Amino acid sequence: MKRFLFTAVAFSLLSSSAFAACTQEEIMRKAADLQTAFQDLARKDPKRYSDAMAKYRAVAKKAATNPDDVCKAYDDLAATIK
Known about the structure:
mainly alpha, 4 helices
C-alpha cells in the first residue's frame, strides 16, 4: 500500500512534469528514497512512522498537481523522518 501511494503521486505528475524544474526522474528517485526511509522508520519507531504517514497523505493530496511541490514535499518529509 505504501509503495502504491508513493508511486501513484509520482505517476500522476508524468504528463505535467515536462515544464517543471523537478523532473520525473527526480520525483521517482525521491519517492524510492522516501519509501526506504519510511520502511526504516516503521521498524525503529512505529509511532513516528504513523505520524509521518499521516503527514505524507495530507501533503500528497495537496502537492499531487505540481511536480515542484511534490519534490519539495518529499524533501521536507525525508528531512523530518531521518
